[in-house]
Amino acid sequence: MNIGIVFYSKTGNTLSVAKKIQERLEKAGHAVNMEQIGVAEDKNKADIGQYDLVIFGSPVRAFSASPVIKEYLNQLNEGNKQAYCFVTHFLPFKWMGGKSALEQMKQFCKKKNIEVSKSGIISWSRNRETAIGKLADEFAKEA
Q1: Among the listed residues 9, 7, 102, 30, the one whose alpha carbon sits nearest the alpha carbon of residue 64
Q2: How far is residue 43's CA from residue 27's CA, in Å, rounded to a whole number?
Q3: Closest Cα to residue 18, out of 27, 28, 8?
Q4: Do residues 53 and 82 touch, judged by C-beta distance below 8 A?
Q5: H-state helical runs in the chain
Q6: Rounded Cα–Cα distance for residues 54 and 51 (Å)
Q7: pTM (predicted TM-score)
Q8: Distance (Å, whole) CA 101 – CA 114
Q9: pLDDT digits (tens, 9 = 90+) for 15-65
Q10: Closest Cα to residue 105, out of 119, 90, 92, 91?
């Protein structure tokens, strides 16, 4: 399967999760391309049309998905895609912004006819490596 991981990472935490997911997917035999979007207009143009599955990733900002990922998802023209989503956040509990950020990403996808079938929240706690591994394994198993 041809998979794209489209993500925004300000501090590198979301990038590190995207890399781990990429490793697990490639180990499972998938072709994976990572596309990091940014605040500059030319960094917000990742084309998902080439992918069978797209994985969107974002940090949580103020109990919300990052404005960068929301802007990116809002401008998408693609439809009829399968997607997974994940968010990273510093706070220890999923209800402290993670759940609402994921829900926002899912709603943006739904408006663009993109079906989100898997999602996950990575809290930046002492158990994060285990959580990242579990999420990467789940994404690889289901792809």
Answers
A1: 102
A2: 28
A3: 8
A4: yes
A5: 13-27, 67-75, 98-111, 128-142
A6: 6
A7: 0.91
A8: 17
A9: 999 999 999 999 999 999 999 998 765 556 778 989 999 999 999 988 889
A10: 119
